[in-house]
Amino acid sequence: MGTLREDMYAALGGADAVASMSHEARADAIEDFAIAKLDAAAEKARKTKTFPTVAELDARIDQRGYRRGAGSLFRHSNYSETIKPGVPEGKVKRLSKMPAAPTLIDFFKQRFAPAAHLLQSAALAKRKGESEEVILGCLLHDMGGYLLKSDHGYWGAQLIEPYVSERVAFGVRYHQALRFFADPQSGYEYPVRYYEAFGFDYVPPPYIQAAYQHALKHEWYMVARHITTNDLYTFNPNLTIEVEEFTDIIGRHFKQPREGLGYDNSPVAHMWRTMINPDAPL
Fold this sequence. Notes:
By secondary structure, the chain is an all-alpha fold. Mean pLDDT is about 85; it is low at about 80-85. It has 14 helices and no strands.
């Protein structure tokens, strides 16, 4: 067994082959190698790990000092699903002051950062040649989780509805249901991590099953499905992607209000203001 660098070079055809690649091709190849390695580790965990049941996860509810569905902005950075008696809960960080008229990119930099999952999912979709609306959907698909984890697809779609096309909002909303249902023809399998998060015997509730059936028959099904196929559950923690990579796509497909997100008197402005100041007492 060689070092990570040696294994990577061997997988890519050797040092000479890597040296002959363009910078872009080399970056793509390295990212593919990292994703494959992470996927292999996840698959090994699936085969060797004992996952909890739905009942066992339910029994833990009153053993925690937090709600699992709380949005990321309302939890400390050391938050973990694992119960560790005697381990301090940690502290939330002080957030920087947002601009007077904040843009979507401001939120990515000051409220969602590092947002590695969103950025890497969007980058994967871009590299695979997905449409710009699918790429934007991947960039925004889990944004609702910064407010609330529960029904995050619905929260996320509601947040962006005034500013994106109906197709993008549809994709973000229905990716929540589609992620529980495999579609091998599209390259989507049930995520291994869901056995840990929901229990190995989890059955989606009726409203999720109904949403899946609705999306399955809809003309925009593939918009939502492509968000799930680019949803990187085993993203590379060592790969940094900046939101500026998507500036042009955001500019073409996200209608930035002149007053700033949170101050344009839209039906969802209060939700953006909550993310601007999640420390407000009332």
